[in-house]
Amino acid sequence: MARSLKKGPFIDDHLVRKLEDLNRSGEKRVIRTWSRRSTVLPEMVGHNIAVHNGRKFIPVYVTESMVGHKLGEFAPTRTFKSHGGKTARVQKLK
User: Fold this and answer.
1) Which of 65, 24, 27, 29 is nearest to 50 (CA)?
2) Rounded to whole angstroms, how far apart are CA atoms 39 and 32?
3) First to last CA, the chain
């Protein structure tokens, strides 16, 4: 279910403070965060945010098309190995 429009988008306070400091100073550096649940805001566009995926930090460059999505969507937590492979093809031929 979507979040109420009255409440506005959710973003962790510590992440907002870090972004405001960077925007005020005008410098570009990577922000490390564990907050996968935070929504991407227009103020984040153009910044590099390293999002934790449970094992390591995945660098995410925020673009305009990401606004409204959650940070966790851009740092996958699982690695896809493949479906079957050679043994699956051999079983299919028999």
Assistant:
1) 29
2) 15
3) 47
Look-up of token digits 């028999």: 94
* Predicted TM-score of the model (pTM): 0.80
Q: Which residues partner with 61 through β-bridges?
A: 48
Q: DSSP secondary structure string, 19-82?
A: HHHHHHHT---PEEE--TTPBP-GGGTT-EEEEE-SSSEEEEE--GGGTTSBGGGGS-SS----
Residue for token pair 């937590």 = 77
| Side chain identity, residue 31 | I
Q: Which two tokens stand for residue 34?
A: 């564990």
One digit per residue, pLDDT tens: the chain, 94 residues? Answer: 788 989 999 999 999 999 999 999 988 899 999 999 999 999 999 999 999 999 999 999 999 999 999 999 999 999 888 887 776 666 666 6
